Amino acid sequence: MVVCGFELPSRLKWLEASPEGRDWLRQLPCIIDACLQRWALRLDRPYRQSNVSLVFPATRTDGLSVVLKFQFPHSECTHEAEALRRWSGNGAVQLLDSDSALNALVLERCEPGEHLSRVKPDIALEVLTELLPRLWVDGGEPFVTLREKAASWTEDLPASWERAGRPFEVGLLDAALSALAVLPDSQGRQVLVHQDLHGDNVLRAAREPWLAIDPKPLVGEREFSLAPIVRSYEFGHSREHVTQRLDKLTSNLGLNRERARLWSLVQTLAWAFDGKRALKKHVETARWLWQA
Predict the structure, then answer these.
(1) Among residues 291, 279, 292, which one has the least CA distance to residue 168?
(2) Cα-Cα-Cα-Cα dihedral sign, residues 257, 263, 267, 270
(3) What CA dihedral angle connects 133, 135, 136 and 138, to 10 degrees?
(4) How many separate helices (H) and strands (E) can be counted in the chain?
(5) Cα–Cα dist 197/144, whole Å
(6) Angle at 256 between CA 252 and CA 260, to 5 degrees
(7) How many Å separate Cα 186 from the centre of its chain?
(8) Where are the alpha helices (DSSP H) in 164-219?
(9) What is the rounded average pLDDT of the residues 81-95?
(10) Rounded to whole angstroms, how far apart are CA atoms 192 and 281?
(11) Burial status of residue 189 (CB atoms within 10 A of its CB: 0-12, 13-18, 19 or more)
(12) Distance (Å, rounded) from C-alpha 215 to C-alpha 144?
């Protein structure tokens, strides 16, 4: 499919399979045109790595290089602009402007833009250890809370497990559900959490050495924010690698290891389903965390 003269990135082709996705794709040319008019931008070829949003490098008439991001409407992206606004460029990419009606954001462009997943794992963990406390700002409205998200996982996990044909032992499912029964009501300090902070969502930049992008914001305790890093298989996918990341992050950041372990298990398993298919690496990671 061609959108405004550019081929739709292959990772977004899944949108063509649903009525909601097809409807959004049909609207995109008008949405893009409205944004180009509003912000006086010239687009370049979209980034190929996009999985949910259509993201373009763009140039303003004053010559500033920016990023124009169009979000396919879904629950996890609802308050991305507000999260970036709260961080105000401190450890994260700067939000330059946004239009909630069009689900469009104008962002600082990270240059040279190398992904943190490309560097050595020990260096990457040092970068993430430095970034995380800067992102732990006060949350509150309008963000979804970790308590609310946990309630939805409690309801959805058994159904996803059945739909996927019971792809792993019931004991692992029960371990996640048991954790969900006790963790939400015993949380510590509530902060804004980037719940998808893995190696491909941190980019090398000019203003700062590394900046976080693409938050799926929640308000919850700090231990939860380690989950996407603990399961980041780009930094090594084995029981030893997962345990080392958990131990190093909790020690360096002064966090409760057991709570971080359980939240990592829960979110990894909750994100382990793609329709009727279970993601093998996520299931393996959850199993290692169950036994860690």
Answers:
(1) 279
(2) positive
(3) 150
(4) 9, 13
(5) 17
(6) 95
(7) 24
(8) 170-182
(9) 97
(10) 27
(11) exposed
(12) 13
Please give the model's pTM, rounded to 2 decimal places: 0.94
- Which of the following is catalytic: 44, 97, 174, 196? 196
113 burial (CB, 10 Å; 0-12 / 13-18 / 19+) is: middle
Confirm whether 196 is a catalytic residue.
yes
Residues in the chain: 292
pLDDT digits (tens, 9 = 90+) for 153-176: 999 999 999 999 999 999 999 999
- HEC string of 97-140 equals EEECCCCEEEEECCCCCCEHHHCCHHHHHHHHHHHHHHHCCCCC
How far, in Å, CA of 246 to CA of 264, rounded? 9
Listed residue (138, 37, 38) closest to 97, CA to CA: 38
Nearest to 200 by CA among 227, 229, 237: 229
d(CA 115, CA 273): 25
H or E element that contains 254: none
Tell me the three state secondary structure of residue 145: strand
280, pLDDT greater than 70: yes
Evaluate whether 54 touches 21 at the Cβ level (below 8 Å).
no
Instruction: Give me the mean pLDDT over the 205-216 stretch.
Output: 95
Query: Distance between CA 109 and CA 284 in Å, rounded?
Result: 35
Neighbours of 236 (CB within 10 A): 12
Q: What is the dihedral of CA 59, 60, 65, 68, to 10 degrees?
A: -70
* Reduced DSSP (H G I as helix, E B as strand, rest coil) percent helix, strand, coil of the chain, to 5: 50, 20, 30
